Amino acid sequence: MILVSFLAFTLFAAALTWSITRRDEKGSSDGFFLGGRSLTFPVIAGSLLLTNLSTEQMVGLNGSAYKDGLAVMAWEVVAVIALVVMALFFLPRFLRAGITTVPQFLENRFNKSTQTLTNIIFLTAYCLILIPIILYSGAMGLSQMLDLKNLTGITEPVNFLGNTVAPDTVILWGTVFLIGIMGSLYSRFGGLKSLAVLDTINGVGLLVGGFMIVYYALNRVSDGQGVLEGWSILKEARPDRLNSIGSPQTEVPFSTLFTGVALLNLFYWCTNQQIIQRTFGASSLAEGQKGVLLTGALKLLGPIYLVLPGIIAFHLFSDTGLTNDKAYGTLVREVLPPHFTGFFAAVMVGAILSSFNAALNSTSALFSIGLYHNVINPKGSEQQMVRAAKIFVVCIAIAGMIVAPLLAGQASIFEYLQKMNAIYFIPIFAVVVVGMLHSRVPAPAAFWALVLGLALIGAKYFIPGASDRVDGIFRYNFHYLGVVFAFLVIFMIGWGTIAPRSTPWKLATATPIDMTPWKNAKWAGLILIILVIAVYAAFAG
């Protein structure tokens, strides 16, 4: 029954996506990377949501909630404010510039050296951090959810090239490569619009399945007495884990919401190529703003299915020695009926493929437009660019599949993701913000700010003993990120004051789409910010 429902939904989603997008043009860069700039707000919102809600969120964030409780909802709720900033400030500027990638904007604002360095940073990070984490967390989630050890019959150590390999390791590697191959095929033969439509279909299934898990899990807590009774029991038994503020020992202490956590959210939703490429394909500014703000509204529901299941898993399984990143998959397997487990596993595969494909599609855009067109073959045609991109993503996918299983053993995969992301999130975000707000900062200031930012944050993580010394001064890692960001901003503004560029930079309009803003954008943004404050106040203990 599990396999039947799994295959049925997977085939349904693939067939529906093919029927909708089979006649779309994918031979040009706009067609392949931006869906022909034809995306409307429901597709943008669905694609943004599911690109974000992959297994590093479903498995990783619920694993963090299993460890720290409701306080980790910061990654979902603070994201709403970042999406408001994206809709009102960043998106109009990106769309007006008519760009396909964030490094393209930096080339327009600064120079090719800044663009090339940013491209290299993005490509390296996606290859070594993002794609492996998507594959690893996806494999872990599916392994626990479908109980692949028993389903495959691999319950004993396997002899491989003269070495004895544990069954969990065999299943992990096999699942990683299966997901990687499936995702590569989707990305190889489809453009952004195909991925966005598939995201939207799977997004509906993900939301339905996510709420179903909460329903069945709360019923399990109450021994079948109902959801409300289960919630009452959970509140009475685990009040410390239902506090939005949390304690100083949690992964995201409340004070960090105003420093590093805020900055990481702002970069992720406003300048992260993997995410915002969906918005670059908007058919108009108004459609893009509506899509981004609708995503913000949907993110307010995130704690229900991305945090609460982890808390319930702790209540049910904490005495079994279950590790953080196995909590969500185990909960799904234990509380969902078999026919729903297969359906949700299919949705999870869709979520994995969505984030994986988004990373590959963004990687191909960064490579072909940023490196192939500018450095390797400046005279190449658009068809050559797209072909080079498709070949390159295969190489990146293979590298990601090899690195992914090596992540096994992390205490919290979501915490590891945020820590590694910070190395490049903070420098790039600082350069983009200063580039937009200060018209006299010259190109060398931006280039060296990127180098300094990478060095300052990377040194903390990779120089022995540096992390303890820095945390001793700034108390929390996220505060240190805020200090580095402020330093980089001051560094660039100071350079621009002492040795400004000869003429102020002006953002030129280079887009074919309608740039009329959505008339209700500001009011919608204000309502979302009020709701964020209300959510925190409601659960502050």
Task: Please tell me about this protein's structure.
By secondary structure, the protein is an all-alpha fold. It has one domain: Up-down Bundle (Sodium/glucose cotransporter). Strands 1-2 form a two-stranded antiparallel sheet. Helix 15 runs parallel beside helix 25 and helix 21 runs parallel beside helix 24.
Blueprint of the fold:
Elements: H1 2-21, H2 29-34, H3 41-52, H4 55-58, H5 60-68, H6 74-97, H7 102-109, H8 112-145, H9 148-152, E1 158-160, E2 163-165, H10 167-189, H11 192-221, H12 227-237, H13 260-270, H14 273-280, H15 285-299, H16 302-306, H17 308-317, H18 327-335, H19 338-376, H20 382-403, H21 413-437, H22 443-462, H23 466-474, H24 477-498, H25 521-538
Antiparallel strand pairs: 1-2
Helix pairs in contact: 1-11, 1-19, 3-11, 3-14, 3-15, 3-19, 5-17, 6-13, 6-15, 6-25, 7-8, 8-10, 8-18, 8-19, 8-20, 8-21, 8-22, 10-19, 10-20, 11-12, 11-17, 11-19, 13-21, 14-19, 15-25, 17-18, 19-20, 21-22, 21-24, 22-24
Radius of gyration: 23 Å
CATH architecture level-2 label: Up-down Bundle
Query: N-to-C SSE series?
Result: HHHHHHHHHEEHHHHHHHHHHHHHHHH
Give the C-level CATH assignment: Mainly Alpha
CATH homologous superfamily heading: Sodium/glucose cotransporter
Could you describe the largest sheet, including whether it forms a barrel? 2 strands, antiparallel
Summarize the structure.
The chain is mainly α and 541 residues long. The protein is built from 25 helices and two strands.
List the defining traits of the structure above.
two-stranded antiparallel ribbon; 25 helices; Sodium/glucose cotransporter; mainly alpha; single chain; 74% helix; globular; 541 residues; 2 strands
